[in-house]
Amino acid sequence: KKPTADNDNDGDATMKDATEEEEPPKMIDPTVGLDTEILKQLTEGMGFSMIRAQKGLIFGNGSTVESAVEWIMQHQDDLDIDEDIPMQPAVKAQSYKCNECGKILSNMANLELHANKTGHSDFEESTQRVKPLTAEEKAAKIQGIKVLLASKRAEREEAEKAENVDREKSRRFMGKEMAKTREQMEVEKRKRDAALRKKQKQEYARERQRIRAELAKDKAERMANKGKLSSKLGVDGYNPDGIQYELDADGTPTTEEGKDGAEDAVASSKKPKTAVHASAAKIDDYLTKVSSYRAGGDGGKC
Questions:
Q1: Taking a C-beta distance cutoff of 8 angstroms, is the pair 64, 73 a contact?
Q2: What angle is formed at CA 107 by the lines to CA 101 and CA 111, rounded to 5 degrees?
Q3: Rounded average pLDDT over 287-296
Q4: Which residues pair with 247 in a beta bridge?
Q5: Mean confidence (pLDDT) of the chain
Q6: Is the dihedral of CA 12, 17, 21, 23 positive or negative?
Q7: Which terminus, N or C, of the chain has the lesser number of Cβ atoms within 10 Å?
Q8: The whole model's pTM is what?
Q9: What is the DSSP string of 75-125?
Q10: 283 or 20: whose pLDDT is higher?
Q11: How distant is the alpha carbon of residue 195 from its chain centre?
Q12: Which residues contact 92 (CB under 8 A, 6 or more apart)?
């Protein structure tokens, strides 16, 4: 009778399970990795044999010289003290240990999370098995995390509110300062504009007074020179070329020459003016005559 396919599969699974169960565990030498400096102190410095020094470090508590010496002294009368150390099965790492804070971490994800959170970088494998959490412990831990997150969120919101208040106060203060500065700048500008207008008025008044003085000087010169103006305009104003007569307070010449000139000017001013009618036919003659004159008393017919 041929076996069915189901029986064949069951037989293969049974043989596979038996093979996996019968596979011997991996054996390692426990003396590998012992501190050579401590072994040197125990053997060369204290005179213990290498076997006893190695057993002291392996079975002593602490893996130090003191713990190794203490274990050797307690077991020095054992019958198998000098026998070779047998190979031991390799123990699979059950967790990870942080050497900086001593915390036991169940898997690599927790190790990475712990490293990112604390900045620790010194880890090693550990044989200590982390007990899995029950459903109630998981629920309690999740609830605690939620409460912690809620409190952190509330603290962050309070901090943001405080920052917003401070930012608004700073904004208002800066606005007031800018308005005050702007107002002060406008006041200064109004002062400068007022000073400029005042300066312009003063310059205008001085220029008007100078022009009046020049007109008075021209009038006196005309009176002194029989109604003729022989002065010329220079950089500093009119620079009379004719004879200047001294006048008293009421404008009357004090010298005889001045009085004669003034009388002639007055007489010429009282003469009746005759109307002059221009002729269009003589326009060319007029232009030729006018172009022959030179202004400012610099020669010619003027």
A1: no
A2: 40
A3: 66
A4: 253
A5: 75
A6: positive
A7: N
A8: 0.29
A9: HTT-TTTTSPPPPEEPPPP-EEEETTT--EESSHHHHHHHHHHH----EEE
A10: 283
A11: 41
A12: 127
